[in-house]
Design brief:
Blueprint lengths: L9 H8 L3 H10 L17 H15 L4 H13 L2 H38 L7 H13 L1
Helix pairs in contact: 4-5
């Protein structure tokens, strides 16, 4: 292997992609990133392909993909299976939309409770705390 400008130690690779060394090792244990061979008495060296793979993983994480989903996308990328990747992304989009609906519901509920707190129209000390107690009673 060429050890120069296009080969990095794990520390240099981590710095180049903006993660720490333990993140790279974790990706290797999860099977997301190969572990390069260690030459006898030497240091493992990583390639531009490893750099690109970590950037892909981080990019997918920013879009909310789990590591399991990312592993699946990486496998699909190796086989150029765009239809399967699109199906995974479609499911992920559906999950994101559901989470957004939940967040909008949470936002509306909190805004309502805060409004009730500010106006002090309730006969309880704090409508927010009372509502949380009511949810606790509803959950049991």
């Amino acid at each position: 292997m060429q050890h120069g400008k296009n080969a990095w130690t794990i520390g240099r690779l981590a710095a180049a992609v903006g993660v720490n060394v333990e993140t790279i090792r974790f990706y290797q244990r999860r099977g997301l990133l190969r572990e390069p061979p260690r030459p006898p008495g030497g240091i493992r060296h990583y390639t531009p392909a490893d750099n690109a793979r970590i950037k892909f993983i981080k990019s997918a994480q920013r879009l909310g993909f789990s590591l399991d989903e990312i592993q699946h996308l990486l496998q699909l990328d190796e086989g150029m299976q765009c239809d399967a990747a699109a199906a995974l992304a479609t499911q992920h989009l559906s999950d994101v939309q559901k989470r957004l609906q939940d967040l909008h519901r949470i936002e509306a509920t909190l805004a309502n409770l805060l409004d009730r707190c500010r106006h002090g129209e309730e006969k309880v000390a704090c409508p927010l705390i009372a509502a949380l107690h009511a949810d606790e009673a509803d959950a049991s």
